[in-house]
């Protein structure tokens, strides 16, 4: 029981391991709050749009609005991560041109 109290209080009398000798102890870092992140937001909005599809009468309109907002948020998040010019150059490369045009027309 005494050994357990020493370990839990941080006053362990045993020899330090080899790793403890090589690497000094780091102070504990406080937990940081979760920052706003666009990719999970865009996935969430698109998923909500898919769930709203089953509402009678207004479901199709709500699906279209939420799914479109989710797609715009997805494109916006890649613009944020890569930068607008680099993203536009990659989107309009010859190998991606057809997919880009279809995506933009679909929105």
TrEMBL record:
Region of interest (Disordered), ranges: 1-26
Localisation per UniProt entry: Membrane
Protein origin, superkingdom: Eukaryota
Biased composition (Basic and acidic residues): 1-14
Species this protein is from: Regulus satrapa (Golden-crowned kinglet)
Keywords, comma-separated and alphabetical: Membrane, Protein transport, Transmembrane, Transmembrane helix, Transport
Pfam families associated with the record: Got1
InterPro entries assigned: Vesicle_transpt_Got1/SFT2, Vesicle_transpt_SFT2
GO cellular component: cytoplasm; endomembrane system; membrane
Transmembrane segments: 60-82
This protein's name: Vesicle transport protein
Keyword Transmembrane helix: yes
Biological role stated in the UniProt entry: May be involved in fusion of retrograde transport vesicles derived from an endocytic compartment with the Golgi complex.
Family: Belongs to the SFT2 family.
Gene Ontology annotations of biological process type: protein transport; vesicle-mediated transport
Membrane topology summary: Multi-pass membrane protein
């Amino acid at each position: 029981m005494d050994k357990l109290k020493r370990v839990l209080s941080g006053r362990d009398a045993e020899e330090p391991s080899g790793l403890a000798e090589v690497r000094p102890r780091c102070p504990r870092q406080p937990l940081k709050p979760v920052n706003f992140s666009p990719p999970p937001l865009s996935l969430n909005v698109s998923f909500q749009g898919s769930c709203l599809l089953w509402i009678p009468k207004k479901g199709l309109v709500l699906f279209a609005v939420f799914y479109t907002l989710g797609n715009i948020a997805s494109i916006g998040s890649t613009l944020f991560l890569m930068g607008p010019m680099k993203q536009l150059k990659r989107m309009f490369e010859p190998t991606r041109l057809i997919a880009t045009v279809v995506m933009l027309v679909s929105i």
